[in-house]
């Protein structure tokens, strides 16, 4: 597996080894010991699969009380996957990284606790799978505005389709309950 560190400490771009031949391909999308050695510090307890149409933007989400680390990949289609450092006091507070994940490139993004996460579908549809380090806890559901100019995510130039909830998240500067940077990296 190839591991690339991003501009945000702890956010990793992973390229699992893929074995291909005339029959198709095989890859491990998760192997606890190998991923731990690569820097993925999470014990996953929940797996999710979402299908979305072109232009759907989900995010930017995080959880308080029971924060989640996530490992994401795309099994059909393509997305721009984004992580934003929302840890108050972090040297990279408010900065973001974005990576194209697709069924073709088979890359994965690891988003640790303390980061908001979101993605935009750039293909006709996309099936996104992800593992979470904690179960979803509705009472801790939070987010920040996808188009916050202080963050400045360079989303794809297309009409965006958002849920009513995602349209109403506060700007990062006004967001309550943000995690606090603890010096870890």
Question: Mind explaining what this structure looks like?
Answer:
By secondary structure, this protein is mainly beta. The protein is 6% helix and 41% strand. It is built from two helices and 13 strands. The longest helix is centred in the N-terminal third of the chain and has 7 residues, at 32-38. It starts with a strand and ends in a 17-residue tail after the last helix. The model has no long low-confidence stretch (mean pLDDT 96).
Major sheet strand order: 1-2-10-7-12-5
Would you report the number of β strands?
13
What fraction, in percent, of the residue positions are helical?
Answer: under 10%
The main pleated sheet reads as:
6 strands, antiparallel
Task: Please give a quick description of this structure.
6% of the residues lie in helices and 41% in strands. It is mainly beta.
List keywords for this structure.
single chain, 185 residues, 6-stranded antiparallel beta sheet, 5-stranded antiparallel beta sheet, 6% helix
Secondary-structure topology with pairs:
Elements lengths: L1 E4 L6 E4 L2 E4 L2 E4 L4 H7 L7 E8 L3 E7 L6 E7 L1 E8 L10 E7 L5 E4 L3 E7 L3 E8 L8 E3 L20 H5 L17
Antiparallel strand pairs: 1-2, 2-10, 3-4, 5-12, 6-11, 6-13, 7-10, 7-12, 8-9, 8-11
């Amino acid at each position: 597996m190839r591991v690339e560190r991003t501009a945000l400490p702890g956010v990793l771009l992973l390229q699992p080894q893929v074995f291909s031949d005339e029959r198709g391909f095989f890859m491990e999308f998760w192997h606890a010991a190998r991923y731990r050695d690569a820097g993925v510090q999470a014990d996953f307890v929940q797996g999710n699969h979402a299908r979305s149409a072109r232009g759907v933007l989900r995010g930017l989400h995080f959880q308080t009380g029971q924060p989640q680390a996530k490992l994401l990949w795309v099994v059909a289609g393509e997305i721009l996957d984004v992580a934003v450092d929302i840890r108050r006091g972090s040297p990279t507070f408010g900065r973001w990284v974005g990576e194209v994940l697709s069924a073709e490139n088979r890359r994965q993004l690891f988003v640790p606790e303390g980061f908001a996460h979101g993605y935009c579908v750039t293909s006709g549809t996309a099936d996104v799978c992800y593992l979470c380090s904690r179960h979803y806890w509705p009472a801790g559901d939070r987010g920040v505005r996808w188009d916050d100019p202080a963050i400045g995510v360079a989303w794809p130039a297309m009409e965006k389709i958002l849920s009513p909830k995602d349209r109403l998240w506060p700007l990062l500067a006004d967001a309550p309950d943000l995690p606090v940077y603890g010096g870890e990296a």
